[in-house]
Amino acid sequence: MNYKRSEAKEAAREQFRGVWAAIATPFTANDRLDEAGLRRNMRRYTDGLHVDGIFCTGTMGEFWALTKEERKRAVEIVVERDHDMKVHMSSAAPFLMQVPGYTPMRDYAELALAGKFREAAAIRDGMQPLRDLNEKWLREPGLKHKIIPIHTLKAWSELLGMAGGQVRPPLPQVTDQERLALRADLEQAGLLARLPGGQRARAA
User: Fold this and answer.
1) pLDDT at residue 181 above 50?
2) How many whole angstroms separate alpha carbon 44 and alpha carbon 117?
3) b/e for 155-164, b at 16 or more Cβ within 10 A?
4) What is the per-residue pLDDT across 126-160, written as a single tens digit (0 to 9) for each?
5) Sign of dihedral through CA atoms 97, 58, 52, 29?
6) Which CATH number goes with the domain that contains 107?
7) In whole angstroms, what is the distance from residue 144 CA to residue 91 CA?
8) How many domains does the structure of the chain reveal?
9) Tens digits of residue pLDDT in 34-75
């Protein structure tokens, strides 16, 4: 790093700003890389959710199940959208807990960085139902079964109008019962009601 220890905090503010996301790799029904779906997702991440950095083909992206050519193509599509692979650590939360027109994570980050801590805390507290869902559907199953539940992550994405598709072995596929229960939880948390009309209809 090109800064002194005393300058570390300021350097971090300059280099690590905003909201970043680790994205899944969408597949088509015949188990191919869904290039059109990935492009559509990227437009949502960048234009609709204003995500500042993208990390693709990592753990969330099922890197172990991708061919070298698939990984390369996915990165090319992400880059085609003038989005850098500048994320050092991230999660799926920015596109699972936000929808276009409702971006509390980004709003929280901007308020906190501006020193408006009371306003930021109010947004943080308002997101508790979504954090509870993340705990229930992603973190707890991951700890229990010792896997990252990317099948659930993709189902959640699809319910919000994004491309997801199946997962590749050895991960399990989401069941119809799990999808229905997840949809009910997202409805109860109020996230589906925030979707634009067309996307809300697809989620139904």
Assistant:
1) yes
2) 28
3) bbbbbbbbbb
4) 999 999 999 999 999 999 989 889 999 999 999 99
5) negative
6) 3.20.20.70
7) 19
8) 1
9) 999 999 999 999 999 999 888 899 999 999 999 999 999 999
Q: Is the pTM of this model over 0.85?
A: yes
Residue 200 pLDDT more than 60?
A: no
Place of tokens 């500048």: 86
Cα-Cα-Cα-Cα torsion 108, 179, 153, 124, nearest 10 degrees, comes to: 10
Of 98, 104, 85, nearest to 22 (Cα)?
85
Q: Which of 16-20, 55-59, 119-123 shows the lowest mean pLDDT across its residues?
A: 16-20
Please answer whether residues 26 and 151 qualify as being in contact, where contact means their C-beta atoms are separated by less than 8 angstroms.
no
Pairing of strands 53-55, 20-22: parallel
DSSP labels, the chain: --S-GGGHHHHHHHHS-S-EEEPP--B-TTSSB-HHHHHHHHHIIIIIS---EEE-SSTTTTGGGS-HHHHHHHHHHHHHTT-----SS-BSHHHHS-BTTB-HHHHHHHHHHTT-HHHHHHHHHHTHHHHHHHIIIIIHHHHHHTS--HHHHHHHHHHTT-------TTSPPPPHHHHHHHHHHHHHTTSGGGS-HHHHHHH-
Query: What is the span of the domain harbouring residue 42?
Result: 5-203
Using CA atoms of 124, 8, 50, 54 in order, give the dihedral in degrees to the nearest 10.
-110
